[in-house]
Amino acid sequence: MSKKLLAGFILLPIGIVLIPILPEFGIPLILLSTRFLQEKYSWARRLNLWVEARFNAIKASFRNRRDN
């Protein structure tokens, strides 16, 4: 098992446990773990693509508000 996969499998449950307590740390930890896991697992790749699309849409929305 590669070091990235191992890190992903270690960080994912930690992030899940942290969400109710400290979501500002739990959510980024989950996203980081899925970045590591996307090399092998398609569900992690799809999740990352979805998150990137939502993030880009939010950035565009803020840009449009600022420009108007």
Describe this structure in words.
The chain has 68 residues and is mostly helical. It has one domain. It is built from three helices and no strands. The chain has helices at 3-21, 23-37, 42-67. It is flat. The N and C termini lie far apart (51 Å).
Helix count? 3
> What separation lies between the terminal Cα atoms?
51 Å
Helix-strand pattern = HHH
Mean pLDDT: 93
Largest sheet: none
Q: Could you tell me the strand content as a percent range?
A: under 5%
Q: Gyration radius, to the nearest Å?
A: 15 Å
Q: Which descriptor suits the 3D outline?
A: flat
- Main structural class: mainly alpha
Tally of separate domains: 1
Low-confidence stretches: none
How many E-type strands? 0
Helix content: over 70%
Summarize this structure briefly.
The protein has 68 residues and is mainly alpha-helical. It contains 3 helices and no strands. The chain has one domain (3-67).
List keywords for this structure.
single chain, 68 residues, mainly alpha, flat
Topology:
Layout: H1 3-21, H2 23-37, H3 42-67
